[in-house]
Write a structure and sequence with these properties.
The chain is built from 67 helices and 40 strands.
């Protein structure tokens, strides 16, 4: 950071002067300014601006003050820490100031000493000043730089800043040491010339040597010494000594008088031990060698911090004995190290000798190589090494031949104080680290105390390190150089070398080499520091195992040095590093606390990156973990969580705390998620905490699950039960110790769930043999406590991190759609609500209600529609697979259980699905999966696929709902096909129900409609043109209201976006919709439209628009429409057509109905869709068997299916027609019959088949209120009851033998198109669902024709079962041909008033009811449908036509009056006669029975029967009984009993008359005779009748007495056959 700015050095000096001027006098300023200029001479401007200007001024002044007074002979050394207080300036460093008369080596020596002592130098300012001083040393004048002359002194000033040293004692030591160094410099410099003179003297004495020496050598020695003195050697000291031997070594004896330079200081005060030398040194010193070389024992403190060199000249006598040695100590100058060896005397001879010995040609490769080696060899070696040794070393170096090898050459100093080592290391391997390793090996092996090194690099592939090691001469080491070299090689084996060889070893040479080539950079330095090479090989194996399918690998390990609770793991990942924010939560949830993370990146040669993340963590106290055992489990868990196969939440802690594998944890999580859906009331976090608090129980629960669904395959049932019981007992015992009530509740519910689980795919493998990525569980919901009602029979829960879903079924054969739900929190609640409606809707078809819903949990948040759809489809596939995984299959008629699924329930192969919200186009996908699974239903599994019936194309749902609309209006004398009615619609023409519905009649006036985007208003449309325009929109793909041609719209209308702020209300709108305001917001307008006085409100949209005034908007659960919703009592339309689901709440419908509105319910109106789907499935099941048998191809099947579209549609609409007709019949007498409904509801409730509150049926108090208000049940409530009574009857029939009766089973054919029944009647009898279909058809037929309470009334009055009632009904239906007469009445639609039609049907119902009761009473245990129909049918047909002849007297008159009234109303005569005579037709049953008893002709018996009735006024009496008012059930039962008694008595009298012995053959005469014979009794009876006629009130007791009289009369005939 710059503290000030200066444009140039001059500018700086200018600023500095200004700063200095504040501190010194004006006179002194020029001198100080000149000083400052010289003081900062060579310092760069950059460096100066890094310091404060004030501090620069301070240090300048400080140095100046040092300069002001200086004794030339005593150098000044100041070491201090500047601070403001004491010095007036400051620095963060310690300041060192040295003032000395100018000498060579001063700066070098000071710098060397500071470095040696470990101080870093931050600032170094040196300058040589020219000054004049007085004799006292006072500064007189500072002269310009370089001035010389008389009286001018040259003084060296040094200013340094070094690392701050706070210790005062240390500062003093440093000052003293620097003074010493300066002293050494002075000594060396002072004796420099005398030493040179000494050398010349010795040079001269060489020739006088007595010892014979080779003249060439002598001359070379002389040349060398001359060369030395010629600026090639810095002389530091000189000494002379002799050697005396003693014992094993010797003593050096110095001549102190000879000492020059540093020797004077170094040789002072030596002890005998210091002077001792070893024997080998003595030998060396006694060798007659003229010139020798060695190294000094201590590094120099002058000039350079190296070990100084010794150059010795020995005086040798004639005998070759060394007299004394003269030794110079100094440093070769730098030029020596740059000069060629061929130019250095003495060395050049050695070099020439080596080259000669080598025999290499100088121009050849080896010669050049040799020359190069010698040229770069360290000069020390060349000087000191004898030729023989030098030759060996040089040749060995040449032999390395540029190969990547490590070589070590070792040489010992003759004095034994040093070892010289040359190490050659491949350049690409060389590093500081390698050099340190070599140094370490050498120091260890040589026991060295110190080591100096120089590294040399050239173009060679080898780097050379020269090491000088200080050793102890006393230790005579025998060094095996080869072994030492080996040790160095081992030590230098870099991490990379070890890694490379281990890779080849582990992977094999071929693959290993490839791996090394693939990752040329290997592992990063940070990795190499922390891990050994063998770890890297393992890591590389993990990295190579990464793949698309396996993008993440993990490995746990416990470092040897780590703490007890510490644990590490490595994660391996390709391409991108793992985001810490993703990984940390996973590890935290596994119960691991992350302490640190180290990422390492590997580069593949192809540019790909691979990452290794090393994590360190601890885990909770108190956990005793065996990490080796847990490693796989933890690793497995982590990898699956990262992949998304398992969720990342607190449940994962169980891996660590309970030692559970991740799938077992996922199992517990799945159950927890189901607990959430069934509203247990605890969040998932709390459930997870509970399991973590009770890991023993968590483990036992998974064991119980495993026992039930895995071990069960291997155990016998007794063993299994025993094992299960023991486990259960263990869990229950452990539960007793759970203190917290909520935790106890959660754990018990887990136990309940596992016991309620019937099947699971948990142990099923996929096609690749891997565990499945999703789980499905089939539950018996009745075993799960506190389950929200209604409780289904079966439930399948599918769980995966990607999707969750449930499928609820209310019976073995059940159907309903699968919904794509968006309610992740409570989708089961949504499905439960839907299944309720489905349950009642399905009363018309074979299956009972079912419904499924799934929630995709990982929809792309930023994805487009296609991406969202693709994910939803993938989730749907998982959901469907989950259902099929655990569903039984049928193959060639035999049941095949799913693979690896233990079943704790019975066979259950029927599973069908359908489309619902969000899954309209998914049927083919579901069928594809079913076909892949080989599921027996094939493409009948999901209806509405490409080979199924397209509901929208058929318009079946809308047509079905339209049937209801037609009936409502017909009952109001309006024909919607011919009369124009006004309609408000919800939806748009693109929708199935809305579009098809508003094309049902071209007379409709669609005055308004709306969907979620637009409001369409056409106050006075032209029906024909608007119909054509609607047709166009319907055919236009994805049309909306904005596509409507506004030019044909009536005045005052328009199409308004719902996003508008307000809409102006035109006069036409005000008139049409009865609106007063001039302006409304879109929502207000919609609210007003819903309340508008129109004929029909047609709902073909989504949403709930009508509630009751008793309900709040929150109760409805459709927030989006809260603002526009209206109450049922506010609706002013006449009819609501519910094509869409949930358009009104049930209570809203009831309120509308009680206020005079006409509506059924959504499940009645739109049952066409589900009905059509069921027909499709049943037909496909039938035809698939035919296809499998080879009697038809798939293509033919599909053609046949298509050809029957209209017939199927006809069957479906027939059901809609019949069901709404039955509702009208019920509604007509709803008030009179309210007690019956009350009993029906009570009975269903008592048997657990109905929950009034759930179905919004009135409770007892509400019924009492209705009776008081003279109101019965509304159509909406009757709709629920008609469904329940059908469902109940279907169940009863299915459990009985009715579907197995051949005659009754003929009803099955009515469920199929006639063309199919004709062709495949045999196959039909073998239909898989034959019993279900028969039961459904009989139940529907019975309830539609006989009414909702029919079975209930007959069960009560006869005590027979529902199945017996149904069997008897079929007999009655067929013998009286009731369907034929119903069809006759139905054909009168729009010809006679609806009221008359209903009255006619009421008569037929009464006949059916009485006749059925007669069969149940009179043939209690011997009903046989086939036989009875064959017997009674023909007789009834014959007698029914003869009523004219058979009836007589007032009876006949009444009958004629009735039938003529019908004829006049437009009823065909035959029908009128039949209906008017239903009472008498019923009478034919006892007549036929009497005919059987007496053996007489049935016609005669009939005549006698009617005659008896007339004669005894029984017909009138019966009439009186029938008109008795009923106030309670007992009275109703009594009245029925009276009628039955009278029938029985009239029959008994008839039989008595006919069997009278010797009576006349004429019936009248015979009867007269009988009456005469029993006069007394007859008179009593007649007297009774007179009293009855005279009685004012009606009393059940009177009739009880009267019946007794008639019984007496009947019994009085002798020999009566009863």
């Amino acid at each position: 950071m710059a503290f000030f700015t200066a444009a140039s050095k001059a500018d700086f000096q200018h600023q500095l002067q200004a700063a200095l001027a504040q501190h010194i006098s004006e006179q002194a300023l020029p001198q100080v300014a000149l000083f400052a200029e010289q003081f900062f001479g060579i310092i760069s401007l950059d460096e100066l601006t890094q310091r404060r200007l004030s501090d620069l001024a301070g240090c300048t002044l400080s140095a100046w003050r040092l300069l002001e007074h200086f004794e030339h002979g005593t150098p000044e050394v100041r070491v201090y820490n500047p601070d403001y207080e004491r010095h007036g300036w400051q620095s963060t460093h310690t300041a060192v100031e040295v003032l000395h008369h100018d000498l060579p080596f001063l700066v070098d020596s000071v710098r060397t000493e500071l470095n040696r002592r470990g101080y870093s130098i931050h600032t170094l300012q040196t300058t040589v000043l020219s000054v004049r001083r007085d004799e006292k040393g006072q500064l007189l004048e500072l002269l310009p730089k370089g001035t010389s002359g008389d009286g001018v002194l040259q003084e060296s000033l040094m200013y340094l800043e070094i690392d701050r040293c706070a210790n005062a004692a240390e500062l003093n030591v440093l000052a003293r040491e620097l003074e010493q160094v300066l002293g050494e410099v002075r000594v060396a410099v002072e004796d420099f010339e005398p030493m040179k003179a000494k050398l010349h003297e010795l040079l001269a004495g060489i020739d006088a040597t007595e010892y014979t020496i080779d003249p060439e050598e002598k001359s070379e020695v002389k040349v060398f010494l001359e060369w030395l003195v010629n600026n090639h050697f810095t002389f530091l000291g000189y000494e002379e000594f002799t050697v005396s031997s003693e014992g094993e070594g010797g003593q050096l004896q110095y001549a102190p008088s000879s000492f020059l330079g540093l020797t004077k200081l170094l040789r002072a005060g030596l002890t005998a031990e210091d002077l001792h030398i070893e024997g080998y040194a003595v030998n060396y010193l006694q060798e007659p060698t003229l010139l020798s070389f060695a190294k000094a024992a201590h590094p120099s403190r002058v000039h350079r911090p190296a070990y100084p060199d010794y150059v010795s000249i020995r005086q040798i006598d004639a005998d070759g004995k060394v007299i004394k040695e003269s030794r110079f100590m100094g440093l070769y100058t730098s030029s020596v190290y740059g000069e060629s060896v061929r130019a250095i005397p003495y060395i050049r001879r050695k070099v020439a000798e080596v080259e000669r010995r080598s025999g290499f040609d100088a121009k050849a490769h080896l010669g050049k190589e040799l020359a190069q080696v010698v040229e770069v060899l360290p000069r020390d070696d060349l000087f000191q090494t004898p030729v023989d040794e030098l030759f060996t070393t040089v040749m060995s170096i040449v032999q390395i031949q540029e190969r990547n090898k490590i070589r070590v050459f070792l040489r010992k100093d003759p004095y034994g104080r040093f070892c010289y080592c040359l190490a050659y290391v491949p350049r690409d391997v060389y590093s500081t680290e390698v050099r340190q390793k070599i140094q370490q090996v050498l120091m260890d092996r040589l026991k060295a105390s110190d080591c100096e090194f120089w590294t040399f690099f050239s173009e060679s592939v080898l780097a050379r390190v020269q090491l000088i090691l200080r050793v102890d001469p006393k230790i005579n080491l025998e060094i095996d150089v080869a072994q030492l070299e080996n040790e160095v090689i081992q030590a230098c084996r870099s991490w990379k070398d070890d890694y490379a060889s281990l890779v080849v070893e582990s992977f094999g040479e071929a693959q290993g080499t490839n791996v090394l080539a693939d990752f040329p950079k290997g592992f990063p330095a940070g990795y190499r520091e922390r891990f050994a090479a063998h770890s890297a090989v393992v890591d590389m194996q993990h990295v190579l195992s990464l793949s698309e399918a396996n993008p993440l690998v993990m490995s746990f390990y416990q470092p040897l040095a780590g703490g007890r609770q510490q644990l590490h793991c490595k994660l391996y990942h390709a391409d991108t590093p793992l985001a810490l924010s993703d990984v940390l939560p996973i590890l935290e949830n596994l119960g691991l606390r992350v302490l640190g993370e180290f990422p390492y990146r590997l580069h593949h040669a192809n540019g790909r990156e691979f990452w290794i993340h090393d994590f360190a963590f601890t885990y909770g106290e108190g956990l005793n973990l065996d990490i080796q055992q847990l490693n796989d489990t933890l690793q497995d868990a982590f990898v699956h969580i990262v992949r998304g196969d398992a969720e990342n939440d607190a449940f994962n802690r169980l891996v660590l705390t309970a030692g559970l594998p991740w799938r077992d944890v996922a199992l517990l999580r799945a159950y927890a998620r189901y607990l959430k859906q069934i509203r247990l009331g605890f969040d998932l976090g709390y459930i997870a905490t509970t399991l973590n608090n009770h890991t023993d129980i968590a483990r036992e629960l998974t064991r119980l699950f495993k026992t039930r669904f895995y071990l069960a395959r291997k155990l016998g049932s007794d063993d299994l039960d025993d094992k299960q019981l023991r486990l259960e007992q263990a869990i229950l015992t452990a539960l007793d110790d759970v203190q917290v009530l909520n935790e106890d509740r959660i754990l018990r519910r887990y136990l309940d769930l596992i016991k309620a689980t019937l099947r699971t795919n948990f142990y099923q493998a996929d096609a690749n043999g891997q565990s499945k990525s999703y789980f499905s569980f089939k539950f018996n919901p009745r075993l799960i406590p506190e389950l929200p009602k209604p409780v289904p029979k079966f439930e399948i829960f599918v769980y995966s991190p990607r999707v969750e879903g449930v499928h609820l079924r209310f019976g073995n054969v059940a159907r309903g759609g699968l919904r794509w739900s968006d309610r992740e929190e409570d989708f089961r609640t949504e499905v439960l609500g839907l299944v309720k409606a489905q349950q009642v809707k399905n009363s018309v078809i074979v299956p009972v209600g079912a419904k499924g819903g799934f929630v995709p949990r990982r929809l792309p948040t930023t994805g487009n529609r296609d991406e969202v759809q693709a994910e939803a489809i993938a989730c749907y596939r998982i959901f469907i697979s989950g259902l099929l995984d655990i569903t039984d299959n049928l193959k060639e008629g035999a049941l095949v259980p799913p693979v690896n699924v233990v079943r704790h329930d019975d066979d259950d192969p029927y599973l069908v699905v359908a489309a619902d919200k969000g899954t309209a186009t998914f049927s083919d996908i579901a069928n594809g999966i079913a076909i892949d699974y080989g599921f027996w239903l094939g493409d009948a599994f999901a209806s509405g696929g490409s080979a199924g019936y397209d509901h929208k194309k058929m318009g079946i749902t809308a047509k079905g709902a339209w049937v209801g609309v037609q009936r409502h209006f017909r009952e109001r004398d309006i024909n919607v096909q011919q009369d124009s009615i006004s309609v408000i619609g919800i939806g748009d023409m693109a929708g199935d129900v809305f579009g098809n519905g508003l094309l049902m009649s071209d007379k409709l006036q669609l005055v308004a409609a709306f969907n979620h985007l637009h409001i369409f208003i056409d106050p006075n449309p032209d029906p024909a043109t608007s119909f054509a325009e609607r047709q166009r929109l319907f055919n236009l793909p994805r049309s909306s209201w904005t596509d409507y041609d506004t030019s044909i719209m009536s005045a005052g209308g328009g199409i308004f976006p719902r996003s508008l702020k307000s809409i102006a209300i035109t006069e036409q709108m005000k008139a049409r919709f009865d609106i007063k305001a001039d302006k409304l917001t879109p929502t207000e307008l919609l609210h007003a439209l819903l309340k508008a006085p129109v004929d029909l409100l047609w709902n073909g949209g989504i949403g709930t628009y009508v509630k009751s005034s008793e309900e709040s908007h929150a109760d409805v659960g459709d927030k989006a429409n809260d603002a526009l919703r209206v109450d049922g009592n506010e609706l002013r339309c006449k009819v609501v057509g519910e094509g869409g689901n949930l358009g009104m709440t049930q209570l809203g419908r009831v309120e509308f109905g009680l206020n005079g509105g006409a509506t059924n319910t959504d499940f009645i109106d739109n049952a066409g869709g589900v009905d059509c789907s069921d027909h499709e499935v049943n037909i496909k099941i039938l035809l698939n068997e035919v296809v499998q048998a080879g009697d038809m191809t798939e293509k033919q099947r599909n053609q046949l299916l298509e050809s029957m579209t209209d017939e199927v549609g006809h069957l479906v609409l027939g059901n809609n027609y019949k069901q709404t007709q039955a509702l009208s019949l019920a509604a007509r007498r709803a008030y009179e019959r309210i007690a019956e409904y009350k009993r029906l509801m009570s009975d269903l409730e008592a048997r657990g088949k109905l929950d009034r509150a759930i179905e919004f049926l009135p409770a007892e108090e509400q019924i009492a209120e209705r009776i008081a208000a003279k109101q019965g049940l509304s159509r909406a409530e009757l709709s629920v009851l008609i469904s329940y009574s059908k469902i109940d009857l279907k169940e009863a029939l299915l459990e009985s033998r009715v579907p197995d009766d051949d005659y009754l089973a003929r009803d099955m054919e009515t469920a199929f198109p006639p063309s199919l029944s004709a062709k495949f009647s045999t196959a039909m009898r073998g239909h898989r669902l034959k019993r279900e279909i028969v039961s459904t058809q009989i139940a529907n037929d019975l309830v539609n024709h006989m009414g909702i309470t029919f079975v209930q009334r007959l069960k009560e009055s006869t005590g027979m079962s529902a199945a017996a009632v149904a069997g008897a009904y079929v007999i009655v239906r067929d013998i009286f041909h009731l369907p034929h007469w119903f069809r006759q009445i139905e054909a009168l639609d729009y010809k006679v008033s609806a009221e008359i039609q209903l009255a006619l049907m009421d008569e037929l119902m009464r006949l059916g009811r009485r006749a059925t009761r007669w069969f149940l009473r009179s043939r209690r245990n011997e009903l046989d449908a086939g036989r009875d129909v064959a017997h009674f049918g023909p007789h009834l047909a014959a007698l029914g036509l003869k009523l004219d002849e058979l009836l007589e007297g007032p009876t006949r008159e009444i009958w004629q009056t009735r039938y003529q009234a019908y004829v006049e109303a437009g009823v065909p005569e035959l029908l009128a006669r039949m209906v008017a005579g239903t009472t008498h037709l019923y009478t034919l049953l006892p007549i036929i029975e009497a005919s059987d008893v007496t053996g007489q002709n049935a016609a005669d018996v009939a005549k006698a029967y009617f005659a008896v009735g007339s004669a005894l006024d029984i017909t009138w009496y019966l009439q009186q009984i029938s008109s008795l008012p009923v106030e309670n059930n007992w009275q109703a039962l009594a009245r029925e009993a009276f009628r039955d008694d009278v029938d029985w008595q009239q029959r008994a009298i008839t039989v008595s008359v006919l069997q009278m012995a010797d009576g006349p053959s004429e019936i009248d005469a015979r009867l007269a005779l009988w009456l005469e014979q029993h006069t007394l009794m007859v008179e009593r009876w007649r007297a009774m009748l007179v009293e009855l006629r005279a009685a004012s009130g009606t009393d059940y007791a009177m009739y009880a007495v009267a019946n007794r009289e008639l019984l007496d009369l009947a019994m009085s005939g002798q020999g009566i056959t009863v």
